[in-house]
Automatic annotation (TrEMBL):
The gene is dsbC_2. SUPFAM superfamilies: Thioredoxin-like. The lineage of its organism: Bacteria, Pseudomonadati, Pseudomonadota, Gammaproteobacteria, Vibrionales. Residues 12-120 form the Thioredoxin-like fold domain. It comes from Vibrio cholerae. This is Thiol:disulfide interchange protein DsbC. It comes from the Bacteria.
Length: 137
């Protein structure tokens, strides 16, 4: 599945891809995004934004999905300003709905939900993201 077709923002330029499901209002998710900043040379983080924490999260996640210009989307997500992103006049919810279905089918019950390049999963924020990503089971 191409995660870029979902409600996704990216950070980094590394060869190894890390997929992270986050909620815009999740404090631990924001801490994990902060952890990821120091790893952007080695990894590309794909943050898939889902509304795990209720109606306000759903509004903010849709705001990201329907943003007129995604250039500042990552900054808006990290700075808790998704609500101020200008929206497109019309926004087809198809891929937003696909994002929700994907999270449901994977069985995501909480965030952050991290998928390492080798397929390992962390339900929650790893204590040391770099060590967890580099470890092999």
């Amino acid at each position: 599945m191409d995660v870029d077709t979902l409600n996704t923002v990216s950070m980094g330029r590394g060869d190894k891809e890390v997929v992270v499901f986050v909620d815009p209002r999740c404090a631990v998710c924001h801490q994990l995004m902060g952890d990821a900043k120091s790893l952007v040379d080695d990894y590309t983080f794909k943050f898939i934004v889902i509304p795990a924490l209720g109606a306000e999260s759903n509004r903010l996640a849709k705001n990201l999905y329907c943003a007129k210009d995604k250039t500042h989307a990552l900054d808006a997500l990290m700075n808790n300003t998704l609500g101020s992103l200008p929206s497109k006049e019309t926004c087809d919810p198809g891929q937003y709905d696909q994002t929700l279905l994907t999270a449901h089918f994977i069985g995501i019950e909480g965030v952050p939900f991290v998928v390492a390049p080798d397929g390992r999963v962390s339900k929650g924020r790893p204590k040391n993201l770099k060590s967890w990503l580099e470890s092999v089971e």
